Every structure is written in C-alpha cells, then in structure tokens.
C-alpha cells in the first residue's frame, strides 16, 4: 500500500488544481470583455469540470485501497490556498499570458503524476488524454495564435 500513497497524494493535488482552474476560468468569463476570451474561458471551464469528474472516479478507486485517506484530505486545504493565489486572471490584457501560465502549471502537475511508478493503466490513459489536450493548447499559444475557441 505504500506504493499507492504517493500516487493518491499527487492525484489529490491534480484534482484540486483542476477544480481551482475550473473556478478561475468560470470567474474570468464573468469579468472579461472580449467575446473570444469569454468563450474560451467558458469552454475551458467545462473541460476542466469533465477532468475533475474523471479524476474523482479514479481517486475513489484508489482510496478504497488506502487506510489513511483522511490525511490526504487535510493536506488539500493547504494546496488549495496556495493555488488560489497563483490562479487569477485579472483582465483581457493579461488573459493570454495567464492562460499560458495556468496551462504550463497544469501540464507539469500531470507530468509529475505520470512519472509515478505503478500507475493503474486506466488512470494512466486518462491522465495522458487530459495532458495531451492541455499540451495541444500550449503549442497553439507557443505559436502565437492566441486563444482559439
């Protein structure tokens, strides 16, 4: 069971990250003025909501195998408060740069989890699919194409 605890810890971190990113995009869509940015934020918020749903299912499967699930839940509050300060989109002028920062952070968190040994195959497939979606957007932003809805 010791081998699964780091996976659960990182999966919890990733779950919190996706919840906070979803919330950030949702809040941004209410504050932004440009239609493209609003549509992009809403679309990313919905996508992250799907990611959260999938991650919760996989996390539930793994938590059944661990006795100390409460310890991980306490740690989530600290992770959530740290992320809230990082994930803020102020206005349309900084939108693309903040989206880029959020997506890089997300990609790095996915890579951290994917580097764990003994990942269940279903979890690995889901993480790769989600990470590839994020990385595709990063490549578009790297090319300077901005946000594409």
Distance linking N and C termini: 43 Å
- Approximate shape: elongated
> Helix/strand-derived class?
mainly alpha
Number of helices: 5
How confident overall, as mean pLDDT?
83
Number of strands: 0
- Strand/helix succession: HHHHH
Largest sheet: none
Rg over C-alpha atoms, rounded to the nearest angstrom: 16 Å
Estimate what percentage of residues fall within beta strands: under 5%
Explain how this protein is built.
It is built from five helices and no strands. It is mostly helical and 149 residues long. Helix 1 packs antiparallel against helix 2, helix 1 (5-31) packs parallel to helix 3 and helix 4 runs antiparallel to helix 5. The relative contact order is 0.17. The mean pLDDT is 83.
In short:
By secondary structure, the chain is mostly helical. It has five helices and no strands.
């Amino acid at each position: 069971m010791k081998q699964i605890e780091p996976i659960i810890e990182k999966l919890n971190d990733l779950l919190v990250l996706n919840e906070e990113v979803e919330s950030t995009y949702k809040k941004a869509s209410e504050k932004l003025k440009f239609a493209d940015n609003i549509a992009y934020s809403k679309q990313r918020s919905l996508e992250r909501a799907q990611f959260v749903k999938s991650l919760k299912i996989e996390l539930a499967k793994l938590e059944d195998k661990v006795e100390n699930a409460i310890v991980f839940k306490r740690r989530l509050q600290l992770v959530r408060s740290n992320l809230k300060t990082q994930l803020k989109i102020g206005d349309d002028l900084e939108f693309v740069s903040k989206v880029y920062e959020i997506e890089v952070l997300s990609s790095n968190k996915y890579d951290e989890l994917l580097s764990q040994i003994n990942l269940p195959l279903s979890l690995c497939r889901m993480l790769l699919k989600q990470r590839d979606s994020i990385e595709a957007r990063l490549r578009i932003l790297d090319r300077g194409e901005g946000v594409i809805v």
